[in-house]
Write a structure and sequence with these properties.
By secondary structure, this protein is mostly helical. It has helices spanning 7-28, 47-65, 79-98, 107-131; strands spanning 138-139, 161-162. It starts with 6 loop residues before the first helix and ends with a strand.
Length: 163
């Protein structure tokens, strides 16, 4: 049984989604056309497979927040479609949280499970960008303009980047 949802829970989760959107947009922006299928070996996922998995995690988070438990992995789409899916799912989840509907799972469980996993996978895509010869510049993320509710591809420019 979950405890009652508080405005702090919704606010924290919406900030997490905005963080995923900000870091995801930075990582996806400017990726070379052939990056989607880049591989470092037979036992690793390609960037498009990782992005599809992030989409699956975001869909699952929405279902968990709505009180459902079913995991439904999808077949990866083409790179542009997976990019669009990523931001559309962030928007759907943010809209649900913004509605103030009670959460079907405590906020800390949503964060420690699928949302933390999504952040990890965004980092994997960033690492693959570097390995593919198209690195994403580092950034002092505590200075980033991350705004709850801003979960689309259009994010603020970086405040303080470094190499």
């Amino acid at each position: 049984m979950s405890s009652p949802t508080t405005s702090t829970d919704w606010g924290m989760l919406r900030h997490v989604l905005a963080t995923i959107a900000y870091r995801g947009a930075k990582t996806l922006r400017g990726a070379p056309p052939d990056f989607a299928t880049f591989t470092v070996g037979n036992a690793t996922r390609t960037p498009v497979q990782i992005l599809a998995h992030i989409g699956d995690l975001l869909e699952w988070t929405l279902r968990l927040a709505q009180g459902q438990r079913e995991w439904r992995p999808a077949e990866p789409l083409a790179w542009p479609a997976e990019n669009a899916r990523f931001f559309a799912l962030l928007k759907s989840l943010d809209d649900f949280l913004a509605s103030g509907a009670p959460l079907g799972l405590p906020a800390d469980k949503l964060f420690q499970g699928p949302l933390a996993d999504a952040l990890t996978h965004v980092g994997q895509i960033a690492m693959l960008r570097r390995l593919a010869g198209s690195p994403v510049r580092g950034e002092v993320m505590i200075r980033a303009d991350v705004v709850p509710g801003r979960v689309g591809a259009d994010q603020s420019p970086p405040v303080k980047e470094f190499d």
